[in-house]
Amino acid sequence: MGKNQPDLLPGTLDMLILKTLTRAPLHGYGIAQSIKRLSDDVLTVEEGSLYPALQRLLLQGWVKAEWKMTDTRRRARYYTLTAAGRKQLGLELSQFEQVIGAIGRVLRDAEA
Amino acid sequence: MSPVFRKLAILLGRGRFRGELDEEMAFHREQAEKELVMGGMSREEARLAAMRQFGNATRLRERSHEQVGFRIETVLQDLRFAMRQLRMNPGFAITAVSILALGIASSVAIFAFVDAALIKPLPYKDPSRLMELYEAIPIGPRFHLSYPDYLDWKRENRVFSSLDVYEDQGFMEKTPDGLRPADGARVSDGFFKTLGVTPVLGRDFQYGEDHPDKPRTTLLSYSAWERRYGGNPNVLGQVVTLDGAPYTIIGVLPRDFSFAPAEPADFWAIEMPTGGCEKNRGCHNLFGVARLKDGVTFAAAFADIKTIAQNLEKQYPVSNREQWANMEPLTDRIVGNIRLILLTLLCGAGLLLLIASVNVASLLLARSESRRREMAVRGALGASPKRLVRQFATEGLVLAAIGVAIGAGVAQASMRMLTALIPRDDLASMPYLQGLGLNGRVLAFSVVLALFAAALFAFAPMSRLRFAKISEGLSQGGRGSAGLAWRRFGANLVVIELATATVLLAGAGLLGKSFYRLLHADIGMEPDHIAIVDVAGLGEKYNKDEQTLAMARELVRQVSALPGVKSVGLTNKLPIEDGDVTSNFHVVGRPFHGEHYGVAWRSVSAGYWPALGTRLVSGRYFTDADDATRPKVVIINQAMARQYFPGEDPVGRQITMESTDKNPALIVGEIYDIQEGQLDAAPRGAMYYPFNQDPQSYFSVLVRTSQQEASLLSSLSTTIHSVDPGLAVYDPMTMDRKIHDAPHTYLHRSSAWLVGGFSVMALLLGVVGLYGVIAYSVSQRTREIGVRMALGAERGNVYRMVLGEAGRLVFVGVAAGIASAIPAALLMRSLLFGVRAWDVSTLLAVAVLLSACALLGSYLPAHRAASVSPAEALRTD
């Protein structure tokens, strides 16, 4: 929870979770770790945001959850991307890219 | 599956959802811990670090809940908690709820009256376009029209789509038991069409049905149809004999129809221009009702009829001299006299509700002080400020809702009680009160009150909460600045309460004093021990004056013989009524230029004076000997003498009723004014002719008795019937009762009592509020007082200190109250009688009473403070 780390852009947490789940079903801790690792420790998902976000995604039907055994024989809830979730991810990604592209263009223009 | 259904599924499996979430989060913590241990941390350190990283589990869980839960779920939680809070503090709950219910009940009950009288539209089509028409004359603005004037106004005007008239005059109905007075009214053919009222049964009058050749017809009021005919539809075509003529029933008016100016009325008969009066432009017996044409303004219509009246005045200089047109909206005619009183009462009730709410708010505030720790703990455990605020809002709402529910019930009961207190005749003139009750508008009003109260109750503790720091609350440091701040806030509330109570008390004092003045005003008579009954001698038998006189003489003789009777008088019109029946007069020997000398005209017997107990200014009373064989005489009152004979002695002058009259009457006496009109009316000129010289077939009998006047009433009626069983004898009454029930007395009395009731409750609540603030202040300052006493302060000093604090609040509150009471009283000055808005003795009495009660209320805490033992006080935390 170090304050030196940048905050997630608002609205991107859902997208990151969905993207993380495209590779394989994961439990909550796994999702948090995965995001941290893939971003080279730049992005940390706070637990306080993660679980409410997961509930939100569940409610929308973009992920589904099931209890499975981990390799260490502990019971954990694994989240899987649904077809609707995949579609939603595509939508969010294209919107995100549009926004990032636009921001990039503005910044480049300002530099020039 | 849509999100809503998923939410529902989760709601149904709440336990499982919680369990799964907990397990999931526990798993997360374990994993994090494991990683930290692998990173080289000790197991214990790792556990703590993981927990710290994870943060507040409750908060976290709640946020997940918020994602999936319905808002209502937390609302229900808050509700349950609020109810539990109230149950845990039954003393607080009962006090708060009953104070609130009291305030709300009075406001709602008064509002229901306001609604019934002022808000609910009259039961006519488009009532705001309806106007009441009068002729104005020098002695007043609201007098009758004559039939020929009505026809001219109707024909000449360009501003009304229709113009009709009514006459508020009952009938003598022929029944198997002889003649009986029947309530009724006469109306012109288009009257109901102008109002936009259609009979529920049968038909309305047709245009032209008032032609003298047509058969006479009448409509029945709905209540008369039910009462007299059992609601039988075959009533159509039946015939009733009214005033000796047959009338065919052609229809029944709607149940909700009423027309206050002519109520009570069972029969609504057609006005036929057959009597002598209808042919005479100088005989005024009608009021007009007219509907404005679309697009015509009040001012334009008023100007138009004024012009018509002016033209008539030029055309008929004798009969129409100084007969001006006047009009007002029909609504004003019907509710005008009680509008001010109702609004005054509503203000009174509103102020009481304000005090009640402030009192409950300060109770809540005091309680929020003791709940600071609770709030701090809940905040530390993760309750968001929003959630805490909502908790307070919910508690306020619950309190207000209970208050309104009970208050509305009490209001319903008190409305019934209040209507029962209205004299029957007055109630008939306020037919709109029949719709009184908890209708939609009244309920909406209650809900608005509830929301206002809830907002106040939520705001009061919240305002304190915002500045409170969690750590401060936890450390029980609430005594310091926060206690002081509350004392200031609570003190302000008490000042508001005391000021409001002062305003109410001053209002009640002024109204009470007005009422006392009204009842003890000099009305020129001794009203105790007078029995009254009305008599009508009708038909062939009493066509001639001699017959009427013989009957009257026999009646007086027989009634005088009743045990206890001291004197018996007759009059054509009783005092303490509307003061109507007026006449012109002319002074013989004074040049006449058509001046309009209008005064009340009475025909009274010689026994009238001792029966009523009048007093003579100069001259003499007339006697039974002053009859048709003797020169005409007349007695005038002081007001007439002052107005028309300034600086001279009227006794010995001669007057006539018509300028052409060759047989003038000699003024033989001047009496002190008898109150002919309502009790609060200004004195008006009146002249009294001997009954023996001017006999009347409708008259009232007044009997002064040495016994209980009420016990005389039945033997009085029997005796009069024994003179002639054909006489109509009705409306037995005592003079005291008549004064007691007169509309103005009633209005003055009821407003004085109601505002008095409100102010007593306000006084109680205000004093209790002050007690609360001072007691709290003392409890907060126990240690300080202990120190003072340890350092040598006397008990007297402590008393002075505490009472001084209370005294300052009382002074500011009472001063502010007196300052606002005067403008408030000015607003209701037309309700005051014989008292000025700034009546010093009333204001002084109020200030003294309130201060005394308030200081008494603060004496208890002062006494407790002074009894503090320094050693004990210093030992408290």
Write up this protein.
The complex is a heterodimer of chains A (112) and B (877). Chain A has 112 residues and is an alpha+beta fold. Helix content of chain A is 56%, strand content 14%. Chain A has one domain (13-111): Orthogonal Bundle (Arc Repressor Mutant, subunit A), CATH 1.10.10. In chain A, strand 2 and strand 3 form a beta hairpin. In chain A, helix 1 crosses helix 2 (28-38). Chain A starts with 12 loop residues before the first helix and ends with a helix. Chain B contains 28 helices and 26 strands. The longest helix of chain B is centred in the middle third of the chain and has 41 residues, at 330-370. By secondary structure, chain B is of the alpha+beta class. In chain B, a hairpin with a 2-residue loop joins strand 1 (130-137) and strand 2. In chain B, helix 18 packs antiparallel against helix 24 (743-780), helix 18 runs antiparallel to helix 27 and helix 26 (795-827) packs antiparallel against helix 27 (840-866).
Show the helix and strand layout.
The complex is a heterodimer of chains A (112) and B (877).
Chain A: H1 13-21, E1 26-27, H2 28-38, H3 47-60, E2 63-69, E3 75-81, H4 83-111
Antiparallel strand pairs in A: 1-3, 2-3
Chain B: H1 3-12, H2 14-38, H3 43-54, H4 57-68, H5 71-88, H6 90-119, E1 130-137, E2 140-143, E3 145-146, H7 147-156, E4 160-167, E5 171-175, E6 178-182, E7 184-187, H8 191-195, E8 201-202, E9 217-220, H9 222-229, E10 239-242, E11 245-252, E12 267-270, H10 276-279, E13 284-292, H11 298-315, E14 324-329, H12 330-370, H13 372-380, H14 385-421, H15 424-428, H16 440-467, H17 470-474, H18 481-519, E15 530-536, H19 545-560, E16 565-571, E17 582-584, E18 586-587, E19 598-604, H20 608-612, E20 616-619, E21 633-637, H21 638-644, E22 654-656, E23 665-671, E24 686-690, E25 698-705, H22 709-723, E26 728-734, H23 735-741, H24 743-780, H25 782-790, H26 795-827, H27 840-866, H28 870-875
